[in-house]
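Please predict the structure of the following assembly.
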Amino acid sequence: GQSLEQPSEVTAVEGAIVQINCTYQTSGFYGLSWYQQHDGGAPTFLSYNALDGLEETGRFSSFLSRSDSYGYLLLQELQMKDSASYFCAVRDGQGGKLIFGQGTELSVKP
Amino acid sequence: ETGVTQSPTHLIKTRGQQVTLRCSSQSGHNTVSWYQQALGQGPQFIFQYYREEENGRGNFPPRFSGLQFPNYSSELNVNALELDDSALYLCASSLEFSYEQYFGPGTRLTVT
């Protein structure tokens, strides 16, 4: 089967750093993406890793280890507006089919 | 540049009915994917259309069907609605072979 595992909830305080882990088991793998979704709205793209290593985009970084089938999203200098659900998603094939995890609900407290 | 739009925003249907959801892709994008997101779950891939042809399908029954038009807009049709079809239906557009998908705000379908 195909599955992605990520924690269901994470809580952190404003200004802190939080890491959301994702492990995957899929039949195909072209890369790992991260999406943010506020209150059931449109998911928005955050980052993508096709190769091992760290990708940095502003306050957000994403890491991938293909040998471990593992990745994480790192959010620094947390702000209240970062409270949202975060999904890891495996790109299954060149065509772009995405297999999503169940999502991690991040709550940022003052 | 216009983003991805979907209509309607909300919809209530009765079990057994049929529904059509619509999606306009972002300007210049020729690939549209549809996802179903149940409450508290991640989006599940339904199918993808590329240049008016189905280009991949998830684990959904044939009563879920779609179309893509020459302007790359798309429709999702669901026949014989079941209670479990109640969900947020998301459309995402992208350039061919691009890893970045742009999602619309979704259509919230409730089946009673």
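The CA atoms of residues 4 and 104 of chain B lie 5 Å apart. The longest strand of chain B covers residues 87-94.
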